[in-house]
Structure formats: C-alpha cells, structure tokens
C-alpha cells in the first residue's frame, strides 16, 4: 500500500491504482479467493470494471461529504446497549448528546431504541418508537442529519415521518418483510449491515470459510434483494458488521481485507467503536475505556476504503480523522 508522492507517481505511471479514490494506492490485486497476486498494470480488460469500482472515490450518499471521511455519532436510547446503555435513556439527555456530537463535528447522528448486542432480546416496535421518536424529531428540527437505527419497518416509517433521513438496519432489511418495500417507496438512503441470525443467536453462526469473502458474498445477496424491491443502488451503503456473527479472528480478517467489499460498488460504513475486538486486542475489559483502540481500528478502516465511521466518541474521532487525512492525503487523486 502506498500514499503520498510515491502513490501519486505510481498511479500516474500506471503501476498502481487509487483505493476508494485515495489517499492510499495499491499495486497488486488478487482476482479470486485464494488466488495469487498480480500487478495492476497486468490486468486484462475483463477485470477493468472491477478495478474501476475498487478505485472509485466514495459515491454521493445521503447528502454526506465525499471529499473526506464522515463520522456518524451513536445515540442509543436504551437501558441495555453494551457500551452506553442507560446513559441516554432519558429523552432530554439523548437530545443533548446528539446536539453535542453534531457540534463536535458529527456528519450524522444514529439514534437507536433497541439493543442489538449479542444475546439481546427484541424490543416491541411501539416501545422502540416511544424511545426514539422524540429524540429524532428534536435533532431533525435543529437541521441535524439523523439516521434511524432499527430493524422494524413501522419504526422506519415513523422515524422518517418525524425527520430521519437515513435507515440503518443491522439485518440488511431481512428482519421485517415490509422493510425493503418501505425503503424503496420512501427513496431514503439505507445502510445494509451484515449479520447472520438475530442478536440472540448470531454468535452461534460464525462458521466462515473465509470471512471477508463470505461477508462480501452475503452482503451482495442482500444488496440484490434490496434492488429487486426497488431500492436504488446509489441509496445503499454497506456495513460488514464487526462483532455481529463474527468469531475470534473474523473481525481482524475483515479489517485487514476490507477492500474486498469495495467490489460491490457502494460506500462502506464501519462500526468498531468500543467493541469486544478492541477489548481483546487491548486487554481493556471496560468498553468506555477503549477509546485509543477504537481510534486505531477506525483509522485502519479508512486505510481499507471505509468512508463513514460509526462511533461513540465523536470529537476525538473527528480530530483523528483530520490528522490522518492531512498527513496521508496531500498527493491523492
């Protein structure tokens, strides 16, 4: 992987290609799972469309900036989320937290009313809506871009009605049969996240032959379902679902080989903030003390082509992203 003047020179010479528009560039590609690497300059014409997808700068999506990585702040209006459960369970505190994140530089605030941590039980849509709708309405009234983190079509519809702009579904529109038709009818941007099973069962469904390839194939299948329902490709962002139906080593493999996801031609959103993979690597048991590890993982995600970071610690992430971009991006395309 190259960046800076060396990357620009290699791209100009045809010896490398930008990854997701830069600032990183790559000079070798692998054409299939388990295949050998070959130089970019030796690619035959049949693979040029795939190279173009992987090389392209992030597409316009949800009105978010395309010239820099974006930050999505997390506001869980729940008593039992893994990291901030109970912290924003009161509407006033949740609204204040969302406003503070926006002021700190968040491009969008993701508001959820149902914990999807491993082992979590489902929340009835009516209860979920009672938790999130006042928060979404208040933030949207301030002109803040809001994403509704929900698996339920009824909650999606209600959230969009009070001002949410984006639907973020951990089930990739698989949980509720009405979800895909609703998103298509509303024409709203949507995040399709990879998960197997449900939060209660997902950690028993971690048998992968090769996690990055398997996750990409399974997301491609969900992408096809969404498009058949009428959701436009340009409205879709993809999330590999770190920590969801992933076993030991799967999260690390996904992060190391994230460019595989770029083959699907959608913006990539990642959520690694405070997750157990950070705890395993750092030895930190308490999720709220995993900020340094979360920042390190987020920046690795940017190296792999992610363009949206979903995080708890907005101000710190915004600063880290600005420094990362400034130090790596001076000579990108």
Describe what is shown at a glance.
By secondary structure, this protein is an alpha/beta fold.
Could you please say which CATH topology of the largest domain applies here? TIM Barrel
Q: How would you name the oligomeric state of the polypeptide chains in this document?
A: single chain
- Gyration radius, rounded: 19 Å
Total number of helices: 11
Distance separating the two termini = 15 Å
Secondary-structure class: alpha/beta
Instruction: Provide mean pLDDT, rounded.
Output: 92
- Run of helices and strands: HEEEEHEHEHEHEHEHEHEHHEH
State the name of the first-level CATH class of the largest domain: Alpha Beta
User: What share of the residues lie within helices?
Assistant: 25-40%
Query: How many β strands by DSSP?
Result: 12
- CATH homologous superfamily classification of the largest domain: Dihydropteroate synthase-like
The biggest sheet, with number of strands, parallel, antiparallel or mixed sense and barrel status, is: 8 strands, parallel, barrel
Query: Which spans have pLDDT < 50 for at least 5 consecutive residues?
Result: none
Q: Globular, elongated, flat, extended or rod-shaped: what is the shape?
A: globular
CATH 2nd-level architecture of the largest domain: Alpha-Beta Barrel
What percentage of the residues does DSSP assign to strands (E)?
5-15%
Which sequence of strands runs across the widest sheet?
Answer: 5-6-7-8-9-10-11-12
């Amino acid at each position: 992987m190259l960046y800076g003047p060396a990357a620009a020179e290699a791209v100009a010479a045809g010896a490398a290609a930008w990854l997701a528009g830069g600032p990183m560039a790559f000079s070798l590609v692998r054409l299939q799972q388990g295949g050998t690497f070959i130089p970019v300059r030796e690619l035959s014409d049949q693979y040029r469309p795939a190279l173009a997808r992987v090389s392209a700068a992030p597409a316009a999506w949800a009105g978010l900036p395309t010239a820099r990585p974006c930050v999505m702040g997390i506001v869980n209006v729940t008593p039992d989320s893994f990291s901030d459960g109970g912290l924003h369970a009161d509407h006033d505190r949740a609204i204040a937290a969302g406003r503070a994140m926006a002021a700190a530089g968040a491009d969008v605030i993701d508001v959820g009313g149902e914990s999807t941590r491993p082992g979590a039980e489902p929340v009835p849509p009516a209860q979920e809506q009672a938790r999130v709708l006042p928060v979404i309405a208040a933030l949207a009234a301030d002109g803040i871009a809001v994403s509704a983190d929900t698996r339920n079509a009824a909650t999606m519809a209600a959230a969009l009605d009070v001002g949410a702009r984006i639907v973020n579904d951990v089930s990739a529109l698989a949980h509720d049969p009405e979800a895909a038709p609703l998103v298509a009818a509303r024409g709203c941007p949507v995040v399709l996240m990879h998960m197997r099973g449900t939060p209660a069962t997902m950690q028993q469904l971690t048998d992968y032959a090769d996690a990055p390839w398997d996750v990409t194939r399974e997301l491609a299948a969900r992408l096809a379902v969404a498009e058949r329902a009428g959701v436009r490709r340009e409205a879709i962002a993809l999330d590999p679902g770190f920590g969801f139906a992933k076993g030991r080593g799967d999260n690390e493999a996904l992060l190391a080989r994230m460019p595989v996801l770029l083959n699907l031609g959608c913006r990539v959103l990642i959520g690694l903030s405070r997750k157990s993979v950070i705890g395993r690597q750092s030895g930190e048991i308490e999720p709220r003390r995993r900020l340094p590890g979360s920042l390190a993982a987020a920046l690795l995600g940017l190296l792999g082509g992610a363009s949206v970071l979903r995080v708890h610690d907005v101000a710190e992430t915004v600063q880290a992203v600005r420094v990362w971009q400034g130090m790596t991006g001076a000579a990108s395309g």
